[in-house]
Design goal:
The chain is mainly alpha-helical. The mean pLDDT is 96.
Length: 147
């Protein structure tokens, strides 16, 4: 893979701004499990090897099971492994990540409001938007996978 720019080194202010979103997300009501599921699923959709590698390791360190990570891309076929809240979050993640297809559908939004507060829905949307931004940075700059 061709070597590309390192935005963190070239423009640390931009990275600091993105890190500000991460700092915000670390203070939300969302569980670490929910946040990592969002990060992994979005990264899978965006084919971001750097982020998949990082966030699967983070999820495992946080107590996530290998089975759930292995089946995350097929979560609809393994509904017994994911709670109702997690299923709603994964559906939101897919619809927002693939915004060009149909966006966040009203049905999905209503499901989210049935199991989360409005504030939590806002936090989920921000978590999805943030990882999508990180995915785009990593993929476009060919960030190398670390061990």
């Amino acid at each position: 893979m061709e070597k590309r720019i390192n935005i963190h080194a070239l423009d640390p202010k931009a990275y600091k701004a993105m890190s500000g979103l991460e700092a915000y997300l670390s203070q939300t009501d969302l569980s670490k499990t929910i946040k990592e599921l969002i990060k992994i699923r979005s990264s899978q959709i965006n084919n971001c090897a750097f982020c998949i590698n990082m966030h699967t390791k983070d999820a495992l360190a946080n107590g996530e099971t290998q089975q759930r990570i292995f089946l995350l891309s097929a979560w609809r076929e393994a509904p017994d492994l994911f709670s109702e809240q997690e299923q709603v979050v994964l559906e939101m993640t897919e619809e927002i990540t693939l915004i060009h297809q149909c966006g966040l559908r009203s049905e999905t939004y209503q499901k989210a409001l049935a199991v989360f507060s409005e504030n939590q829905v806002a936090q989920i949307i921000m978590a999805i938007v943030t990882i999508n931004s990180w995915n785009r940075i990593a993929v476009s700059t060919h960030m190398p996978i670390s061990d």
